Amino acid sequence: MNTENRYPVTASLFMLREIKQRQEKVTRGYQLLKRKTEALRIRGRQAAVEMSATQAVLGHTLREAYISLAAIKFTNGESNALVLENVGQAQIRVLRTPENISGVATVSLQAVEDLTASDTLQYAGLGAGGHRTTEAKKAFREAVRILVKFASLRNTCLLLDEAIKSTLRKVNGIEKVIMPKLRNTETYILMEMGEQEREEFHRLKMVKAKKNQKKIVQSQSRDDEESIYSHDTSNPPCTRFFHTILYQRTDPILSQSDSAGDGNVICYPHNWDDEDLLF
Q1: CATH for 13-195, among 3.40.980.10, 1.10.287.3240, 1.20.1740.10, 3.30.1330.30?
Q2: By the 8 A CB rule, do 36 and 203 touch?
Q3: Could you give the 3-state DSSP secondary structure of residue 277?
Q4: How far apart are CA 254 and CA 272, in angstroms?
Q5: At what angle do helices 130-173 and 13-76 cross, to 10 degrees?
Q6: What stretches in the chain show pLDDT beneath 70?
Q7: Distance from C-alpha of 160 to C-alpha of 157, rounded to nearest angstrom
């Protein structure tokens, strides 16, 4: 097995347990990241649909607002200088609301009208075409609200897109690199442990075979000795001690047998005395 596609570990039960625990943790993290990716995709699709609809409404609202501004210029003339000179406090403010979408921190923008701010152009255009000026102000305020909403949705879509890409990279890394390495490592450990078990079994068989062979050799040698003693008629089955005693006796029968020159000692139990049996 290629060592580059597995972790360099030793084959043992401890490492096998560690690898299995890592596999469980990696699988749990992989499932959580998959769920996070699906949740981010769903929320991203919703934000994209809302942004598309808001963009269409924004285009229509801006067109109506600029048409009303053109009508004011036609009736009252150029009024940009008057507006710039009387700019005071902002009547529309942007409220930032933090949100958390499946672990991704985003900011929701919302246009809020400040009622405490003074309107310096409240009575502008009363001399001629005042109603057109009021309609233009309302149209541009609505356009600002929609523009803030569109900016919020676009920011959310960008953040979600980056989060989805990052999460997918993690998911692919776990699926294509980490999980195969853990599986290969587990397979390697199981193979090595199986090989060690077979070697140990073979060693025990060899040891047992040697012991059995040794027992057989010992039994054969014992049988050979017994067969030698059983077939040898010149030496009766008596102990060497009694042979020595019989050689040292001055019995006339034994002395005659010794003088005969045959050199064979005959052990007769009926010729033993009590003195011969004393050790």
Answers
A1: 1.10.287.3240
A2: no
A3: coil
A4: 12
A5: 160
A6: 1-4, 76-88, 115-131, 224-279
A7: 5
- List pLDDT tens digits, range 221-234: 777 666 665 555 55
**Domain assignments of the chain as residue spans, ordered by start:** 13-195
In the block, residue with structure tokens 């809020």? 112
117 Cβ contact list (under 8 Å, min separation 6): 88, 89, 90, 91
Using alpha carbons, list the distances in angstroms from residue 32 to 23, 38, 162.
14, 10, 18
Tokens 């004011």 belong to: 72
CB 104 within 8 A of CB 153: no
Q: Which two tokens stand for residue 251?
A: 């019995």
- Which residues neighbour 245 within 8 Å (Cβ) at sequence distance 6 or greater? 276
